[in-house]
Design a protein that fits this description.
Helix content is 37%, strand content 21%. It is built from ten helices and twelve strands. Helix 1 crosses helix 9, helix 1 runs antiparallel to helix 10 and helix 4 crosses helix 9. The two termini are 26 Å apart. The mean pLDDT is 95.
Length: 293
Amino acid sequence: MASDRIDGRTAVYGLMGDPVEHTLSPAIHNTMAELTGQNLVYLPFHVFRDCDMERTLQGAHALGIRGMNVTVPHKKAVIPFLTEISEEAAAVGAVNTLVWTGEGYRGCNTDVYGLSRNLADAGISLQGKRVILIGAGGAARAAAWLCGRDGAEKLYIANRTMENARKLEEESRKNHPELETKCLSLSEAPGLGEKDLIAIQCTSVGLYPDNNKAPVTDPAFYRQLSFAMDTIYRPGRTRFMQLAEENGAGARNGLGMLLWQGLRSFEIWTGQSVTDQQAAKVRALLESLTACP
């Protein structure tokens, strides 16, 4: 919203994470405030990874913050200090949206919705497909849940730290026992001997300004793919996407995921449904902001 409209009744929302300097979430929510006439403002809050989360939430409430998005590395760490959690967020094991209820913050997960919409926009269905996730954090948890929900045939979880990969493997098998799930190290990913894999990159490797980095660099890995999605949206074309395309796979960045998870959070906070026209305007703004680098 315009700064001259901020007053004593302005509702404050925001994003908590570490880092947050790259975020485009304020563009989503402040634009939606203007489009819908909501008296709210959305700000990024740099909440360090070693923070006291309980005191952080107490401070947020004391300052009157009505809701927050939650990003790396707090999506799981925040859960023990919430008074409520949605059924889907509990199943995923990660929260990305907080809303004040009067008793405390309620945790929801809109990442699953955002990821699902981004894949659908690219014409990708997970039904009967083999999927490999790169990473085992909050975004990977949402992706693993989506794979089970949408009927993927097999799920690989490739991560630098095997302990975290095994934990996500166990969670996936518990949530969706019908989904064949296997964890492996990143170094094993190029040698799977698969084809037509769908890869979803869920780490921060390659995030601006480290544009030339990718979690896997071996071309043999990318030759196994038919499609690759990077949850990173800045830069708009990551090294992970470049490698996928150079080896014959389609690729898409995480801008659509950011858009749709953010718009769903806005709906939760305000009770206001987002129209197709409003979503298109926000998407156009995000695309202009990520055109460079």
